[in-house]
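Morning F.,

Quick status update on the modeling queue. The single chain you submitted on Monday has been processed. Sequence for confirmation:
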Amino acid sequence: MKERLARRLTFLSNDQREIVAYKWNQLTQPAKGVVQIAHGMAETASRYEHFAKALNENGWIVYANDHRGHGESADSKEQLGYLGETKGFERLVSDMDMLTTIIRNENPTLPIYLFGHSMGSFASQRYLMDYHNRIDGVILSGSNGEQGLLTLNAGQLLAQLEMSIRGKKAKSRLMNQLIFGRYNRLFKPKRTGFKWLSRDKHEVDKYVQNPYAGGIFPTSFYVYLINNLKYIENQKNFYKIPKNIPIFIISGSDDPVGDYGKGVKKLYQRYKQLLVKSVEMKIYHQARHELLNETNKDEVIVDIINWLNQQQLV
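Structure tokens below.
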């Protein structure tokens, strides 16, 4: 069995759920700062160990929690995707802030940068709105800036209807097919249903074989997710975003989550129009959704580390 390089830790959420987190701290040089990872939907923080190792080698301590309803924070594998009875996504973001508090307590003099991927990027967008001056910068990976109110309202209505009929914990094959079936449509051959994640077949196979990855999520998850997307696209909440925080947006040009680059550019423009002091964006040609598991992942990781190091010089 492969030795896990991380230290496992747990904490209680505000609604008394046990949240499992990990810390990678095998540094060979003085620490420059901390990277806190918010992973994506239907995966687990342990999938980021290769990224954490690279960050460690360059002087960055790494923390990541399994979001509620994910990985080891889920009540059971049968309960994967279940975020709780109420305020599921709001509480998920609150859990992230509780981990930030742990990081601050353990590393009081070090800057903290939040890396959010996919669902974690949408949680990170909300984090910027609801938890001011808690972190020193944000990297958004596999994100989007505009789903469209009409699309979100239709999805919300459908998800709420299914939840009211079938219950909060019922697996939603309907929403799963509407979202992920669409994502995989342009990628052939349709060997696994997850080709939209990466051009690297080995990494896609590893995802499929991971017992905590993929799977059908419950009806309530989609209600909470869409509620969060509407929250972060509400212009009234834009002005909560601090103007002095550096933001780095990265995406693949063939990532359906970012509408093949179009939605990512809208996100970039949103922050620029809000006069956020430092916003950078890089779109990787032909790369798909999981940049850290792509065929050019080494290039992506070097770019992230260079961006982090540049923040130390500002």
